Fold these 2 entries.
Entry 1:
Amino acid sequence: MTTMTIAKAINEGLRATLNNNPRTLLMGEDIGPLGGVYRVTDGLIGEFGADRVVDTPLAESGIIGTAIGLALSGYLPVCEIQFDGFVFPGFNQITTQLAKMHSRSNGNLTVPVVIRIPYGGGIGSIEHHSESPEALFAHTAGLRIVTPSNPHDAYWMIQQAVDCQDPVIVFEPKRRYWLKGDVDTESPGASADPFKAHVLREGTDATVVAYGPLVPVALAAANAAAEDGRSVEVIDLRSISPIDFDTVTDSVKKTGRLIVAHEAPTFGGIGGEIAARVSERAFLSLEAPVIRVGGFHMPYPVAKVEEDYLPDIDRILEALDRAFAY
Amino acid sequence: MGATHLPATEFDGTGADDQLEAEAEAVLGKPAARMVQLLGPDGTLGGDPVFSKYAERLDAEKLRGFYADMAAIRRFDQEATALQRQGQLALWVPLTGQEAAQIGSGRASQPQDYIFPTYREHGVALTRNVDLAELLRQFRGVSNGGWNPKDTNFHLYTLVLAAQTPHAVGYAMGIQRDQKLAAANAAPDQPQEPKAAVMVYFGDGASSEGDVHESMVFASSYNAPVVFFCQNNHWAISVPSTVQTRVPLADRAKGYGFPGIRVDGNDVIAVHAVTEWALERAREGKGPVLIEAFTYRVGAHTTADDPTKYRGSDEEAQWRAKDPLERLEKYLRSGGLADEAFFAKVRADGDDLAAYVRRTTHDLETPDIRSAFANTYAEAHPLVAEELAWFEEYSAGFADEADGAAN
């Protein structure tokens, strides 16, 4: 067991995968001598050289597009998109090319490209640096999407993403990059399957599902609710595509109430998808409608008001109140 | 006919002249003067200080082969158009007029090279030994890619314009790394793998897409072994190439720092020579080249298009006079390189090919949607499994009804 931050855990995970497979390579803007704007690739170019830690031209479509070509020629590229809001120049390559290559080749071709995207708000940044666009990718068949909430998952998920034959987007909770935790670099343990949700805290009265940056918020809300005598179960979804509906449904059958929290706007989001599935699978177990806690239907607001936009402990508690009052 | 100018292949300050040429071209409707041509429309072979030596590598058998390939793919094109008209294909994308650009460049590639086509490269597919019946699967609606690219190093057609150009550069970056890994691991006396390059096709319309720009920036930055082969067929559906560019497309290469060459795309000998030069250069590690094959889409964009709405028949007639097959036929006949029996055999082979394509198109198997479930992901996926299970149950309900009706 080693204690490290999420950023360091991803750095160590990348180092491990570069050591384990000579065909792994990293590519992105400023990931070389600078080590990335969040220093996630710090030191790697010195250890592995510029052929394997590739500073690219400033062109996201070019990054994803050339990564597809590298994957077709047998390499395992890990792309860094500098910020969530800058992925869209590469959106065409991700959705029309990367996601469909295996299908349109009738299974003959695989494109095991990994795309790392720091996402989410709460860092007081300027426009385009605080967004949560995961639903736009989750809607696209052919992609897998994971998001770690703690250093141990971060260390293993990045390696599991590289090992996966399908394209995987790793959404990294940027405001938690400096969150510390224990990492077992010897064994993933319970994190062996990156596409499985984790029950982080057991409860009997309500379930709160969260992922990425909101997992610590959900846990804190559950602690606060416990002071009011409410036993809240907390699930870290971990994988956004596929979603581990079994774990969520089992929990709801036990608790009868479900809150889904994410930073992304609720409309057309992951919370709505979970609500729909749960209503299909556990309708008679529900004591209240599934309630979503998330961003508003607006462009991500300016930093000075982002606290009013982002779901926090009180917003989750308010949703719990509504669920219990129903 | 056949006089040529050596194109500027490095920075030489001729950009201003090119601008004037382009403006002259826009006014006169004539191609810029600076274009590599070896075999003129009248069938006489000219000289070129750089590329003639590549043309000299071509013996009579190879030249007859070029003719046979061009005739075969034109016959195939006619047959596919007919199949679309008969309702056997959903759509067809004709290539007539571009045979020399495609056969000349495709025949310059080697088996170890990897080719990324757009969606009109039926002639290149022929040179890569793709079964032309398999090529029709996409247009019949039974597959989104009818062949396995690993068999021929000929990638699937890409319909999102220019999206394949960065793929080609990435593949070329992979080749660079393969060579380094092989060199690091090779025993001293181990025979070397043949060096490979990548060639990517796109058109004058796609040249306006951002992916072409980004891929050329990447290719130049990493000196990737890739040849950009632009078929300027003058029309992006209904929009003329003058809307895409006001300078010869080949000249754009200068801005990226690698050579750009305009070649007469209806001259199979010149196209082959220029492409062979570019691919050899790329394989030797000297970096990318942009080739602009100056040609013309004689037919419609697709079988759903109507060129009479946007261009005059006089323009088509002008280009038919530059027909790539006719000029090679003239050259082969006048030089005594092919006799009447050869041309008769080419016609007979074309009829056989057409019959084969007709027969196999009718027989192309409609896939089961279960294969789409199976191929969405490479690894097991719970949502796909759940939806497939539902589909099986749902479908089984209809089977019961059918059984009931039969009883």
Note: Confidence is low (pLDDT under 50) at residues 1-17, 27-33 of chain B.
Entry 2:
Amino acid sequence: MTAQVSTSSGSARASAANPALASSAAVWPVAWAMARRSTVGTLRIPASVVPMIVMPLFFVVAFGGAFSAVTMLPGFPTSNILNWVAPFAVLQGASFAGFGSAFSVGRDLENGFYDRLLMAPTRRVALMLGALLYSAMRAMVPVVIVVPAVLLAGVTIDGGLAGVAMLVVAAVGVAISSGMWGLGVVYRTRTQRAGGLIQVGIFAAMFLSIGTVPLSAMEGTWLYWVARLNPITQVLEMARSGFVGQVAWAEVWPGLVALAFLFVVLGTFAWRAFRRLDQ
Amino acid sequence: MLFPLLIAAVNAASLNRTIDLPGFPPVDSFLQFLLPATVIQGVLFGGIVGGADVALDIQNGFFDRLLSSPVARPAILLGRLGGAVVLGAVQALFFLVVFVVFGATIEGGVAAVAVLVVVAMILALAVGGFAAAVGLRTGSQEAVQNFFPLVFVMLFISSAFFPTTLMNGWFRWVAERNPLSWLINSVRDLVIYGFDGADAIRAVGIAAGLALITVAMAAGQLRRRVRAV
């Protein structure tokens, strides 16, 4: 926290001279210090690191093994189930990165540390940005675990580096979105015991999409309409674009729009609760 | 109870077209295929969560007070496991009603329902026994709940969510040798094909075998803890 304290006091001094300029300049160093603190806190507890590594791999193995036959469905976009499952496993891991971030903020709120952060002479938005920055950084874990693993298992990524880049964009976007959702919940409940509620929201958003099969295979069911309206479907199509063919702008732009939509809605949900924290 | 139902609802909708794939058992719908697995999944998850209560009793000192009271030692364990068995029956009936309301058919009729409920009760005893054994051994609620992912893995690498005939490689090899697959397949046959005495005996026998092992484990851990007091 040394960096944070020095940054905060620096911000206060600078604010006296030119408040607008100095406070905006101090936001990112404080956010970075917050993200760094969360990262160090996570690395200190092996029990929290192991699931981050094991769960996405288990997801690939479990879904890839149990549902390998779904590729035989008419119109399925790939013949290798791992091409289909790997991006979903990465996004699933990324969504839980956001959960982890919100959970640690819930702990800080419970033990009173967050009140001390709120009293610090810095722009408050840096506290929220720090948590989201941590979510985005943690989203890289499932990417660097799953992609090499499926390449070793014989997967060919037709989209190449562009395909992996789209997966990274989608993973970071999902992690930030789930972080915003989680922060919105813990800012309101002020307890990490709200973790169950956060998980239910994330679980529902991820599974009520095209995680297992494409939209065409769901036609005629209630899930078809839910998945079609779920923004995660577009994000998942963007993440998968390079894994089931060449990256196509027609699949990328709806994913980017869906992420922008999620940022606005969930960001507002989190920000409104954050502003009421000391009331 | 909601988590298994949510999984079932999503899978039933997203995988319904797979029932036409060659090699898929002759089911009316994917919902019918999922019915036995959802009951067993609910009992497994509920058993682990409920089983953690023994560890909670140890953690908060209530277990020591029970030991110092003039009650027979086995009654402490039997009371907990008895509760798990009743809960297993309630869960099974609840899932069955929900599935039937949403259109799943049970070809084996009332007899199959009875077997499914009995299997759920015995399986609840098995899971409760396992959770109690871990709880009595460690005295930690967290240690019991740490077995939750293991149950999840066992369930996934089985015939619970998809037929093993449509799996490949090592995954299929493991799934076909998973006792949960044997249990689920036996009960599933009652639901899909109609009542058959051999299937019923096999299902009850597998659940009873698992229960015998885990209750013996729990009893052994209870004796060990009583001796240590």
Note: The interface with chain A takes residues 6-7, 10-11, 13-18, 21, 23, 149, 153, 156-157, 161-162, 166-169, 171-172, 175 of chain B (CB under 8 Å).
